[in-house]
# Entry
Amino acid sequence: MSQDTLSDVLRTVRLRGAVFYYVSYRDRWAAEAPPAREIAAAVMPGAEHVIEYHLVAKGNGWAAVSGLNPVRLAAGDIVLFPQGDAHVLSSAPELPPQRIDANWVFETRDQPKPIPIAFHYGVEQPGTTAPVDHADTVLVCGFIGCDLRPFNPLIAALPRLLHIPAARAGGWVGRVIEQAAAESRAPGPGSDAMLARISEMAFVDAVRRYVESLPEPAGGWLAGLRDRYVGRALALLHEQPATPWTLDELGRQAGLSRSALHERFVQFVGQPPMQYLTNWRMQLASNLLRSTNANVASIALEVGYDSEAAFARAFKRAVGMPPAAWRRAESAAR
# Structure
């Protein structure tokens, strides 16, 4: 697997995390979280896509998404919902859940985080928590935000429910979850920053473990990273996006003929190599437009366009507006 390619994407899509809730459960319990799109503006303002995750610090339970079999959770596990689905966490499958009100998420968005929540005997008590030794299950819950546009190949390649059991996670993950629980239970100076980094680390590690678990015939962008030829081609395009690539030259360096690379790349990634390169250049350009004061002509050169006009046309096709107008709109939104 080309880990550099994955890191490259994670950097450019502005991955960021936050822990919002420290939740303790006792007896029989079931809680339903709303779809991420309903609460995204409260938990991750400005993020185009939001993923909810849960770190199991103590005990066990179940996680479920409509249409999929529920999965068993145990201490040290990580469970994420990459497509932003509504989901249910419970002490047993098929218990009727208490739905978390999206309005409450907005009403409490400015409160110090993480907010303690207790679900005891079916009663939700926001703002309170039971002593850890009295709780059957303890979760640290938060969100990962990222950009989708112009191009984020990662999110579509992830499943609706991503479960990483403790046995498959690295040994450090259990210690990190313990630290997240401690910081959530008794926040101190720097806790917000530490918990944000823990969120991001846990997400990246979960993606890596997921890639390692993919069966050999699997398709998709993540499986493509692991493929000998497609992974090499992706690495070249990410390492040298401004190079005037041709399919012949990319195939030569990846070790396949032009036609074989095209077919294999489409099989994994879902689009031809040159289209992928254009999309990736637009993502890089959007990052530069947002984060630098460089003029459009210099950005065009940096992402592989000799002509500012050609770059502007390609960018408008990708995002619906010219680069300068897109930069103004992004600046106004911040």
